[in-house]
Amino acid sequence: MCQTLSHSLQKHLLFLKFLFKEFDFLDSLQARLNFAKAYNLEFVMPSFTQKKMILENFSHPILKDPKPLNLKFEKSMLAVTGVNAGGKTMLLKSLLSAAFLSKHLIPMKINAHHSVIPYFKEIHAIINDPQNSANNISTFAGRMKQFSALLSKENMLLGVDEIELGTDADEASSLYKTLLEKLLKQNNQIIITTHHKRLSVLMAENQEVELLAALYDEEKERPTYTFLKGVVGKSYAFETALRYGVPRFLIEKAKAFYGEDKEKLNVLIENSSALERELKQKNERLENALKEQEELKNAWLLETEKQKEIFHNKKLELEKSYQQALNALKSEVASKDTSSMHKEIHKASEILNKHKNSHETPQITTSFQANEKARYKNESVLIAQILDKGYYLIETELGMRLKVHGSLLKKIQKPPKNKFKPPKTIIPKPKEASLRLDLRGQRSEEALDLLDAFLNNALLGGFEEVLICHGKGSGILEKFVKEFLKNHPKVASFSDAPINLGGSGVKIVKL
């Protein structure tokens, strides 16, 4: 049975190998996903376009209670200096492990949305002491052997811990500067930890190198496990030795041997670090203030847009109210119901006044006394009566009485000595005034007499717009009406009425 089955599958061997390979790949992906879900981890896909490495809230997987690392490695080389046991080596290992985990699609504890990890063709670490007595290899010789094997590599991430280990510090600084610059030219990224201030200063001249210092809390006499960019850190060897049990009198004796000048250099380095920290704190406060101002600006813009929308809706409401008032007026005019026409006009006026634009610039109103002389449209008038809401009843020299607002009246600076007396001849206000005149069926002479009387009554009644129906017919009556209106001094304009009000057979006259 098994031989028969094996024989039948023999011709599909290559396809079966492909299936097994793909199944293993899918199985490994599912295993990674289950592992990430079980431990609340995240994936970071390596970037093939970004060169900088940004880690936010990254924790090394081997640490039980780690302090999350936040770091931006934006140049080609990172030189880490500073206090002993301050986390320099763990920082180096964290960067290497993050790159390794990302390259092999292994989940990690990190804020993946704000982190960027480049793709590296190879990842190498020079951390352990390569000394080998059996093979007659010293620490420095072992380091040189490791470096020589990497000098031809490209697109590599290299981490070197305690780079100056095993030889004279001054000679090592010059040698390692040359080796590191050779590797940087080959598109590699390098992380080193060192206590060589000379090497750090030499490498700082390169624009592709950034410095990072491990910080030390002098009050608590212990490392803070935090880092500061742009400075060379002090090693705090004496403080570390004291913390780990070396007697203080031995520490003081060592400081005396160390020399006053070098101690001053350390003080200068520490003062520089303190100044850098202070500037960093001020920068953070300024960034927070700018962020707050930006939020206020955005809130102001939102409120402005909201007010614009409210204004637009109010404008539409006013236009709708105006159209309702106009339609009501036209409806009453078309129905020829003169008894209710004035009521509808008053109603329309109330609607328009109710929705009057609140942003309109207020007119400067001057107060007047009864029987006081004023000027209205270049005419001398008399204040006959004081009405409510800033209105006055004025009397013209022709004896006509009009209701006008005080903003339309002007004071007369030098009134004449003789008191103004109204003429004895007073034109009485018409008892019945109409907004519509129908001239259809009238002869031309009679029609013009009626039209003249109609306009006089309309003017005395205070109407601003009237309708004159002359009909269509042969057009003779329309011609006489047009000629009369053109020559009338109180007619501002006239035009054909809308279709629903009679079209070309009716004229709308504005007085």
Chain-wise SSE layout:
Elements (H helix, E strand, L loop, with lengths): L1 H9 L2 H27 L13 E6 L10 E5 L3 E6 L5 H16 L18 E5 L12 H12 L5 E5 L8 H16 L4 E5 L3 H8 L4 E9 L4 E8 L7 H7 L4 H11 L1 H76 L2 H17 L18 E4 L2 E8 L4 E5 L5 E5 L4 E2 L24 E3 L5 H18 L3 E5 L6 H12 L5 E4 L9 E5 L1
Parallel strand pairs: 3-6, 3-7, 4-5, 5-6, 14-15
Antiparallel strand pairs: 1-2, 7-8, 9-10, 9-13, 10-11, 11-12, 15-17, 16-17
Quick tags:
Rossmann fold, SH3 type barrels, 3 domains, 12 helices, mismatched DNA binding, coiled coil, MutS, MutS2 family protein
Describe this structure in words.
This protein has helices at 2-10, 13-39, 88-103, 139-150, 169-184, 197-204, 237-243, 248-258, 260-335, 338-354, 444-461, 476-487; strands at residues 53-58, 69-73, 77-82, 122-126, 156-160, 189-193, 209-217, 222-229, 373-376, 379-386, 391-395, 401-405, 410-411, 436-438, 465-469, 493-496, 506-510. It is α/β, with parallel strands linked by helices. The chain starts with a helix and ends with a strand. The chain has twelve helices and 17 strands. It has three domains: 31-258, Rossmann fold, CATH 3.40.50; 362-427, SH3 type barrels, CATH 2.30.30; 432-511, Ribosomal Protein S8, Chain: A, domain 1, CATH 3.30.1370. It has a six-stranded mixed beta sheet, sandwiched between helices. A five-stranded antiparallel beta sheet has the order 12-11-10-9-13, with no helix packed on it. It is elongated, with a radius of gyration of 49 Å. α5 links the parallel β5 and β6.
